[in-house]
């Protein structure tokens, strides 16, 4: 509507003030000129200061899964000097990690469960239907302002850069054989020590297997942590 008012006021000013031959035409032209100036000020206020609009915030929460196989991790890619990061997150419905946006978007990582991404997106919307009708032709309703991403991840998750994750995978592959050998030796030593303390274990194969499984998991976790400490 505001655009039509501007056009009509310009036309009215041209036909009544510029081409005026009578005093009443001059008066109407002045009124049209005033309407044009006021309309222009309102358009400027709407464009610059979002006159007639209000800020609204929409909150969305989505479930997260690990951004890499074999390790609970949230990946990121540093930009520039590293002060800004693009996070690569994955949900149960996506096959590949999805990057966060970079324009007017802030990212925060906090400790929490379950793993989820909470996004608060701010928009400009018209305060009521009158302002929407008045300025609607400008097509700026629901105009994006900014977004705040909060990644809530459990304490057991890691936050690694893409390069760190690549280095972790490389080291894990290189040391896989030596780890198996070292783990077998350590488990054998643990078993011998356990049998010395409890001779009945020598014939209890089921209990032996339970203990071996437990030790294997513990050693794998320790190896993973050692590798993570090395790449971080």
- Work out the radius of gyration: 34 Å
- pLDDT < 50 runs, ≥5 residues: none
Q: Structural class of the helices, strands and pairings?
A: alpha/beta
Question: In order across it, which strands form the biggest sheet?
Answer: 1-6-7-5
Shape: rod-shaped
**Overall number of strands:** 8
- Write the element-wise H/E pattern from the N-terminal end onward: HHEEEEEEHEEHHH
Amount of beta strand: 25-35%
- How far apart lie the N and C ends? 59 Å
The number of helices is 6
Mean pLDDT: 83
Largest sheet: 4 strands, mixed
Helix content: 40-55%
Compact description:
The chain is an alpha/beta fold.
Task: For the structure shown, list the relevant keywords.
single chain; 232 residues; alpha/beta; four-stranded mixed β-sheet; 6 helices; 8 strands; rod-shaped
What does it look like?
It is a single chain. The chain has 232 residues and is α/β, with parallel strands linked by helices. It contains 6 helices and 8 strands, in the order H-H-E-E-E-E-E-E-H-E-E-H-H-H. A hairpin with a 4-residue loop joins strand 2 and strand 3. Helix 4 crosses helix 6. The mean pLDDT is 83.
